[in-house]
Specification:
Pfam families: ABC2_membrane_2 (PF12679). Keywords: Membrane, Transmembrane, Transmembrane helix. This is ABC transporter permease subunit. The protein is mostly helical. It has one domain. It contains 14 helices and two strands; from the N terminus they run αααββααααααααααα. Strand 1 and strand 2 form a beta hairpin. Helix 9 packs parallel to helix 14. The protein is globular.
Length: about 280
Amino acid sequence: MLRLLQIEFQKIWLNRTSKILLLISFVFPLSILILSSIKINFFGFILDLSETKIFEFPYIWHITTFFVAFFKFFFAIVVVSMIGNEYSNRTLKQNLIDGLSKKEVILSKFYFILAYSLVVTLFVFIITLLIGIFNSPSGSLYIDTIFDGSEFILAYFTKLLTFFSLCLFVGVLIKRSAFALGFLFVSFVLELILYGLFRFEWFDYDKSNEIMQFFPFTSMWNLIDEPFSRIASLHTTEKFPITDYPAYWYEFVIAAVWIFIYIFLSYRLLKRRDL
């Protein structure tokens, strides 16, 4: 495992574009840290987001992971480019000549996205922890309070790994980075349209969600529910429909099944392909 991971990181680090994209991808989570510490002036009205309690424990775990998860579409450029460069630079064929099997090639990619997901998740965990400590009342900083809601970090890691596995499969399928990214975007839009048809034409709300939870992008979305109703509930007595925010165990299972499917199909594609 370490040998394959070392080979993959060496290829990424020797490619200037990939290295820059990799480094930039760690800048985006810092935007939440910056946002939590600034005050916005709207024509003389000062908006201090830290006063809304959204940066306090336990809410910060939910807020951070939900919004930072949107940056995964930028992270997709790193993963898809990694595969595209293999084909354009013919390093994939050279790896096979040097003795790597096609199974080891796919495993090296998977080990990279696994390590990448772990590092990004750890980075987000540290940032979220710091934001919560700086913004929560000092009298409420107990271990059980601090880590209440931290399961969203696990959901964020699962979401990243699932999405990167999808990017790996699409990269192997289409080969060219630009077309692969376009395919991801079109797939996302088509799934949104399909959800709209299920929701407004064919089924009711509950039945639509029951069916769509098994679809690729929806299964990732379900891992971290939207936090807006939770934020609103902090400042009103009105009841909102979503009361159980953390992901259910079966949502993790669905995501894990998709990870297996993406990696398996990537291997089957590469095994059948004449390089």
